[in-house]
Write a structure and sequence with these properties.
single chain; alpha+beta; 2 domains; eleven-stranded antiparallel sheet; binds 2-acetamido-2-deoxy-beta-D-glucopyranose; lysosome; transmembrane
Length: about 400
């Protein structure tokens, strides 16, 4: 598609018009962002940091909380007030034995809350290159037991980097929160809105426990009430932004009656085997079906879950990297995967103006030719009937 696209770049004026329209529509919805590390704590808290990003809209606020106290956790709180704020009782938050260590003020403004916990890293020996983790699992890496680096916060759009050591290498997470619609700079170049954040996860230089090791990442979403959770897979014919990938997976929490999507985790089923990838470094990934998990275990693994939810309900799934026949981890010693976390409906990759232009030209041209052809045939027919009269029937 990309090669074809280049050839058509100048052709359709319709595409140019669409580019203009898309350009003017962008920036319609904006959130004001502000970030604070360890709000209300005078120094660096023992055991890990807590980042708070406020994303203030017209009449609402999204609070992003990211913490490395225990398993890395991103908590998203949506309130219907532009002046809502977060309070932390650090004594309770750090003791991690009761809920109520973190809350929203005013409490009545809370509309939706959901946490994403990065719970475990699993590794298996894929001796027969089937990419099906069954019996050959190594003991899992429990992310709650890692010694995490301090959160490294950088701007202007708040970005936070967290790394933990694993088998002579590192597992890193980079959170970026957005105030406007846009698209990631690097593959998979996910489309984000002002209601979402992006998390990049990568495994760098980890010493695999077998030459044919593959990895899985276990994720959990946690809510205060049970919310139906499912993964929808959407297909597309457009891979302009993520070459060779025609799917997007959306793990959504919908209202109890199933009507509205309240929150989502979205990703493309692709990981990259180098930090500066070319197309050959893309490797497919798969997810398992979401299954209910112990809420109590989620609370004991994550300080944010413990502090915020009185009765946590958790659902988990695994993302596995690589398919049968794909290179093993030891080939490059690197693996990165990107996901989006947000409230409301997930962003939808509309056909890009370029693709619309190509379709318009490639479908339109035969149409015009057909029409022209039809007109010609009509004229020929009329000529034909006239001509026919010049012949005498043969008896
Ligand atoms: C914000 O709230 C005010 C007062 O409740 C209301 O008049 C206004 O329409 C709201 N604006 C939006 C964009 O929802
Ligand atoms: C924090 O919680 C502790 C233990 O429950 C309590 O004694 C203390 O008063 C609380 N601090 C604040 C500022 O609410
Ligand atoms: C929680 O832990 C703190 C500090 O270890 C302790 O003082 C407190 O009694 C504990 N609270 C509960 C409810 O177990
Ligand atoms: C790998 O293949 C061998 C031979 O077919 C078989 O005996 C063994 O059980 C397989 N191992 C796994 C983990 O599937
Ligand atoms: C991680 O720590 C928890 C709590 O201390 C413990 O129950 C669990 O067994 C540990 N996991 C691993 C893999 O060591
Ligand atoms: C924090 O991140 C910036 C940019 O990624 C980097 O230059 C800097 O060295 C990092 N600081 C620490 C303490 O890791
Ligand atoms: C983001 O959330 C706000 C407030 O709920 C809503 O008005 C807006 O349409 C949402 N934007 C997108 C792109 O979903
Ligand atoms: C990875 O393991 C395979 C199988 O043992 C081996 O042939 C290959 O040399 C290893 N690659 C690296 C980079 O270590
Ligand atoms: C992830 O995979 C491991 C190993 O197969 C399994 O024990 C665990 O239950 C899975 N987790 C989820 C949430 O499905």
């Amino acid at each position: 598609m990309a090669a074809a696209a280049r050839d058509w770049r100048l052709a359709p004026s319709a595409a140019l018009l669409l580019v203009c329209l898309a350009g003017s529509a962008r920036g319609a919805f904006h959130r004001q962002l502000s970030a604070k590390l360890n709000p209300g704590y005078s120094s660096l808290p023992p055991g890990g940091d807590l980042l708070h990003v406020r994303a203030v809209g017209v009449n609402d606020t999204l609070h992003y909380l990211f913490s490395s106290q225990g398993a890395p956790t991103l908590l998203l709180l949506h309130t219907d007030s532009a002046s809502s704020d977060i309070q932390v009782n650090w004594t309770q938050f750090l003791a991690r034995n009761t809920s109520g260590g973190l809350w929203v003020e005013p409490e009545s403004s809370l509309q939706f809350s959901s946490a994403l916990v990065f719970s475990r890293l699993l590794e298996y020996d894929d001796v027969n290159d089937t990419a099906t983790p069954t019996s050959d699992l190594f003991p899992p890496y429990d992310l709650q037991n890692f010694t995490w680096s301090r959160l490294n916060l950088s701007g202007p759009a708040p970005t936070a980097l967290l790394c933990g050591g694993v088998a002579r290498g590192s597992l890193c997470l980079r959170l970026a929160v957005f105030g406007d619609e846009g698209r990631g700079q690097r593959w998979p170049r996910l489309l984000h809105s002002a209601n979402s954040s992006q998390m990049e996860v990568w495994l760098d230089g980890v010493a695999p426990r077998s030459p044919r090791s593959r990895f899985l990442l276990e994720l959990q979403t946690v809510g205060g009430a049970y919310l139906p959770s499912r993964v929808d897979v959407h297909r597309s014919i457009d891979d302009e932004f993520t070459p060779s990938i025609f799917q997007v997976s959306q793990w959504v929490s919908s209202a109890v009656d199933g009507s509205a999507v309240l929150g989502f985790v979205q990703w493309k089923p692709v990981a990259y085997r180098r930090s500066d990838p070319v197309l050959e470094d893309a490797t497919p990934c798969r997810h398992s079906e979401p299954v209910p998990q112990s809420g109590a275990a989620a609370a004991s693994s994550s300080a944010l879950v413990r502090a915020f939810f009185a009765t946590p309900h958790a659902v988990g799934l695994n993302v596995s990297f690589g398919l049968a026949g794909e290179p093993f981890y030891n080939g490059s010693g690197f693996l990165s995967w990107t996901l989006l976390v947000g409230v409301g409906s997930p962003p939808v990759d509309a056909f890009s103006p370029l693709v619309v232009g190509i379709m318009a030209v490639s479908l339109g041209t035969p149409m015009i030719l057909l029409l022209l052809g039809g007109v010609c045939v009509c004229f020929r027919k009329r000529d034909g009937t006239n001509a026919g009269q010049a012949y005498e029937p043969i008896n």
